[in-house]
Amino acid sequence: MADQSGPTLTRIQQKNRDLILEGALSAFSTNGFRGATVDQIAEAAGLSKPNVLYYFPTKDEIHKTLLTTLLDMWLAPMMRIDPKGEPLAEVMAYVRAKLEMSRRFPRESRLFAYEILQGAPHLTEILGGSLRGIVDTAAAILQNWMDQGRLARVDPHHLIFSIWALTQHYADFDVQVRAVLGPGHDPFVEAEPFIDNLYRKMLSV
């Protein structure tokens, strides 16, 4: 979760920032932005409150920094879609990557969901700017493959939305999924072949 922007930090400074952002992830993903406090973040980070405020003067700044860092990570698989690759293989690799990220980073997924449900006050500019640009680029790649007859024709933006919704459901609604499936089930292992089959049948030509 290292921050690569701004002035170069010492090893200790970077370690402390990473601890603060990890503590913030725990606090925000559990309690939301309004429910989390700087005291909770400091306790989760193992640092004093003044130390936290030295690096981030406000809770708002901590939250925005964390969300921006997580969004970069969340979008990375989409940016790896290769327009020169085999279309169905590229889409399925993206679907698998999103499901794996939901499995490995459920707190991150829930934190992002919290932000969106609150109207995205810390991400408004990013959602309509860089995020939109990245999604539009991916949608254009998908549309080009469809126009070439290499993928079945569907709305590319809504295809992307459906991939987000379906894969992140297993992180955002983990308690519900596990309650319905009952003990002895691994939702992510069981979901993968179903999701793979769903998109292959939808997109194959």
Report on this model:
With 205 residues, the chain is mostly helical. It has 2 domains: 1-57, Homeodomain-like (Arc Repressor Mutant, subunit A), CATH 1.10.10; 59-203, Tetracycline Repressor, domain 2 (Orthogonal Bundle), CATH 1.10.357. Helices cover 76% and strands 0% of the residues. The chain has 11 helices and no strands. Helix 5 runs antiparallel to helix 11 (187-203). The longest helix is centred in the N-terminal third of the chain and has 25 residues, at 11-35. The chain is globular, with a radius of gyration of 19 Å. Pfam families: TetR_C_3 (PF08362), TetR_N (PF00440). InterPro entries: Homeodomain-like_sf (IPR009057), HTH-type_TetR-like_transc_reg (IPR050109), HTH_TetR (IPR001647), Tet_transcr_reg_TetR-rel_C_sf (IPR036271), Tscrpt_reg_YcdC_C (IPR013573).
Q: What is the first-to-last residue Cα distance?
A: 40 Å
Architecture per CATH nomenclature, i.e. the level-2 architecture of the largest domain: Orthogonal Bundle
Q: Considering the protein shown, what is the CATH homologous superfamily of the largest domain?
A: Tetracycline Repressor, domain 2
CATH-defined topology of the largest domain: Tetracycline Repressor, domain 2
> What oligomeric state is this?
single chain
SSE string, helices as H and strands as E = HHHHHHHHHHH
What gross morphology would you assign?
A: globular
Which whole number gives the mean pLDDT?
90
Number of strands: 0
Which value, in Å, is the CA radius of gyration? 19 Å
Which parts are unreliable, with pLDDT below 50 for 5 consecutive residues or more? 1-5
Largest sheet: none
Structural class: mainly alpha
The number of helices is: 11
Question: Percent of residues in beta strands?
Answer: under 5%
Q: What would CATH call the class of the largest domain?
A: Mainly Alpha
> How helix-rich are the residues, as a percent range?
over 70%
Taken together, the total number of domains comes to 2
